[in-house]
Design a protein that fits this description.
The chain is mainly alpha-helical. The chain has 7 helices and no strands. It has helices spanning 3-13, 18-25, 29-37, 44-54, 58-62, 72-81, 86-111. α2 packs across α3. It is elongated, with a radius of gyration of 20 Å. The two termini are 38 Å apart.
Length: 112
């Protein structure tokens, strides 16, 4: 589903008219209609106002439900991490950050 389709669906789910939505984000309705038709894309500032008006995350408007985020195996592991104490969670975060830095360094050295 495209951004314009998700935008339209979210607005309709809240039972807002296009005019009400345009008023909520502070723009003329004709510009808002361009976003829903897909003929125009909002600026970052307008996109932020849209997400706030719809009370949804930016990710929800941009990505398919399973397009972003960890796979199921990692989700279970991350869920388990939430049950650790603060020091243990910090240790897990440090390990993950270190591995990601090593991966980035490897990618950069391979490009040269």
């Amino acid at each position: 589903m495209s951004f314009s389709d998700r935008l339209t669906a979210c607005r309709k789910e809240l039972r807002f008219t296009q005019q009400q939505m345009a008023d909520k984000i502070g723009m003329h309705v004709s510009q808002y209609k361009r976003y829903e038709s897909g003929s125009s894309q909002p600026t970052i500032d307008v996109f932020r106002r849209i997400a706030l008006a719809l009370n949804v995350s930016a990710d929800m408007l941009l990505f398919e439900p399973d397009e972003r985020g960890p796979d199921d195996r990692l989700k279970l592991q991350f869920e388990a991490v939430t049950h650790l104490d603060e020091k243990e969670r910090e240790a897990v975060e440090i390990v993950i950050a270190s591995i990601l830095h090593m991966h980035d360094a490897k990618r950069w050295t391979m490009r040269k």
